[in-house]
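User: I'm writing a short methods note and want a consistent example. For Transport permease protein, I'll paste the sequence; you return only the structure tokens, no commentary, since I'll be parsing the reply automatically.
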Amino acid sequence: MKNKTGVLLGCLMRNILRSPDTILTVAITPVMMMLLFVYVFGGAIQAGTDNYVNYLLPGILLITIASGIAYTSLRLFTDVKSGLMARFMTMPIKRSSVLWAHVLTSLVSNALTVVVVILVALLMGFRSNANILDWLAVAGILGLFTMALTWLAVIPGLTAGSMEGATAYSYPLIFLPFISSAFVPTETMPAVVRVFAENQPVTSIVNSIRALLEEGSVGNGIWTALAWCIGIMIISYFIASKVFKRQLG
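Assistant:
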């Protein structure tokens, strides 16, 4: 069996680059939200900073990724329903290559979309004191977050009975940052909501990214953020692999 992950990745990326509107479409919603919150709601939101776009950007980046991984589910669903996945299984390639190609495609395409959103944020006044190592740390956290959600996306991509079912799971993931520290400090929330907000994965991830971008340093919260990302990724990978072997193995 040959590992053809690189070949399959190249094919998937060529399809995306032939239709760059996919990347732009994913970026539109986060960019519109950023414009709305900064220029419409920003003056009324007390986030403890004079430059609200600096506070907002980390959460917007997570929403961008949560929006983008829906396309992974859609691509997998299409491959399964069209019979393409079954044909791959008859070829002398490692079966894991097929899933990894989709996951790595998600990682690359989401990275491109994140860059687009950051460029727009810069035009809106985003500024950071972070050095190159801080930015690499941010990229690492975002990469882990993307991998975690992508492996989660593989599961409905393989099991959904309809196109809508393959992508619908992403809506709660997009909504989750709203009940976190992404838009406002959790201290401003009612007690019950605050408990949930402070103990769900998005808050620790957002806080870590924000600390790296604003202060160039991060406390122990980064370990919580990494634990959430790695934990979700491992569990999702295990379930996705089991589903893949059961359905197409």
